[in-house]
Automatic annotation (TrEMBL):
Family annotation (PROSITE patterns): NUDIX, NUDIX_BOX
Protein name: Nudix hydrolase domain-containing protein
PANTHER family (alphabetical): M7GPPPN-MRNA HYDROLASE (PTHR23114:SF17)
Taxonomic source organism: Nepenthes gracilis
Domain Nudix hydrolase: 102-230
Length: 320
C-alpha cells in the first residue's frame, strides 16, 4: 500500500494523524483486554473503527476519502504505534480475518406475512443482493438471541415475542452454519427501518413465488431477476413448513399479492416516500465486537506472534 502516504492530508483526503490516533485509541486500545487477545478479534475492532470513520468522519467532512476495510486497516496499522510492528504480517493477518469471518455461525429470521405468501428480505448497502435479515453470532451469544439482535439491527423489528426456538431452518454453507427462525403471520402494516447506518439499503416484502427456483446455489436469481444471497437453499424446506402450517395463515383472496418495498435508504434521506418510515429508534450503542474464540495464536501459522508484548504495549498506550 505504498499509495497511502499522508504527507498532505488536507489535499489528499487522507485522514489526519489526530483522527487516526483518536480512532485507534477509542476503538482498538480503549476496550476490554479480552477483545485484544488475537488479531482476529483486533480486526473486528478495526472494522468498527472503519464503520465509524465512513459513517461519521467522512459524513461530517466529505473531503475525507472512503476506504475499503483492507485500505483502512493498512492505514491504521501504519499509523498506530502499537500496531506498527505488525505491518509486515498484515497480508496474513487480513487473510486470516476474512477466512475466520466466514466460519462464524450466522442466525436470522424468515419473517412471513399473514398470508404466508411473502417474506421480508433486506438488500445490503454495497452490492445488489437480497437476503433474509441475519448476521454473525457474537461470542457466547445464543442462536436465537443473535437472530433477535440482527433482525432488530437490520429491520428495526423486534421478533423476541414471536420467536419460537424450535421453529427454524438450518443449512451449512462450506464452513458456515446458517440458522433462520421462522416468524410467521407478521402484519404487512408493520413498520421497518434499519438501526445501523450503511448496512442495509432497502427492506421489502418479497413474494415467495418470485424467489423461485429452489436450489442449492448460494447466489441465485428470483423470477423477477432480483439477485438473492443465501435465500434459494431455504425455499424448499420453507414451502414444506408452510404447507404443514397452512391452517394458521390468513389468505388475502381479494388482490393478487405483490412484492412491496417498505423502506429505502435514498427515499429516506429525501423524505419523499409515504412508505418510508422515519426512525424514532436510536442507533444502539456500539457494542464490543466479540466473536467465537478459536484459541490464541490461531491466525499466526506463518510467523511468531507475541500476544503478551502487544497486550503490554496496548496497556502502556492506554495508560499513557
Ligand atoms: P457484518 O456486521 O460484517 O455482517 O456486516 P453480519 O451483520 O452479517 O454479521 C456486513 C457488511 O455490512 C459489512 O461488511 C459492511 O460492509 C456493512 N456494514 C455493517 N455494519 C454494521 C455497518 C456499519 O455500521 N457501517 C457501515 N458503513 N457498513 C456496515
Ligand atoms: Mg453484524
Amino acid at each position: 500500500m505504498s499509495g497511502l502516504h499522508r504527507s498532505s492530508s488536507a489535499q489528499s483526503g487522507l485522514p489526519p494523524q489526530e483522527l487516526l490516533d483518536d480512532l485507534c485509541s477509542r476503538f482498538v486500545l480503549n476496550v476490554p483486554k479480552e477483545d485484544q487477545q488475537s488479531f482476529e478479534r483486533i480486526l473486528f475492532l478495526v472494522e468498527y473503527a472503519h464503520w465509524f470513520y465512513e459513517d461519521n468522519s467522512v459524513e461530517k467532512n466529505p473531503s475525507l476519502k472512503s476506504f475499503t476495510l483492507k485500505e483502512f486497516t493498512t492505514l491504521l496499522f501504519n499509523n498506530c504505534d502499537v500496531l506498527k510492528p505488525y505491518v509486515p504480517h498484515l497480508d496474513d493477518i487480513f487473510k486470516d480475518f476474512t477466512s475466520y469471518k466466514v466460519r462464524v455461525p450466522v442466525t436470522g429470521a424468515i419473517i412471513l406475512d399473514q398470508s404466508y405468501e411473502r417474506c421480508i428480505l433486506v438488500k445490503g448497502w454495497k452490492g445488489t443482493s437480497w437476503s433474509f435479515p441475519r448476521g454473525k453470532k457474537n461470542k457466547d451469544e445464543e442462536d436465537h438471541a443473535c437472530a433477535i439482535r440482527e433482525v432488530l439491527e437490520e429491520t428495526g423489528f423486534d421478533v423476541s415475542d414471536l420467536l419460537n426456538k424450535d421453529q427454524y431452518i438450518e443449512k451449512i454453507f462450506g464452513q458456515q452454519r446458517v440458522r433462520l427462525y421462522i416468524i410467521a403471520g407478521v402484519s404487512d402494516e408493520t413498520t421497518f427501518a434499519p438501526l445501523t447506518k450503511k448496512e442495509i439499503s432497502e427492506i421489502a416484502w418479497q413474494r415467495l413465488d418470485d424467489l423461485q427456483p429452489t436450489s442449492d446455489e448460494v447466489i441465485s436469481r428470483g423470477v423477477t431477476g432480483i439477485k438473492l444471497y443465501m435465500v434459494a437453499p431455504f425455499l424448499g424446506i420453507l414451502k414444506a413448513w408452510i404447507s404443514k402450517h397452512a391452517s394458521s395463515r390468513t389468505p388475502k383472496p381479494d388482490a393478487p399479492l405483490r412484492g412491496i418495498s417498505v423502506w429505502k435508504a435514498k427515499n429516506n434521506s429525501l423524505g419523499s416516500s409515504s412508505l418510508t418510515v422515519d426512525t424514532q429508534q436510536t442507533k444502539p450503542a456500539p457494542d464490543v465486537p466479540v466473536v467465537v474464540d478459536t484459541g490464541p495464536g490461531k491466525s499466526f501459522r506463518n510467523f511468531s506472534f507475541d500476544t503478551a508484548s502487544i497486550l503490554r504495549a496496548m496497556e502502556a498506550a492506554f495508560l499513557a
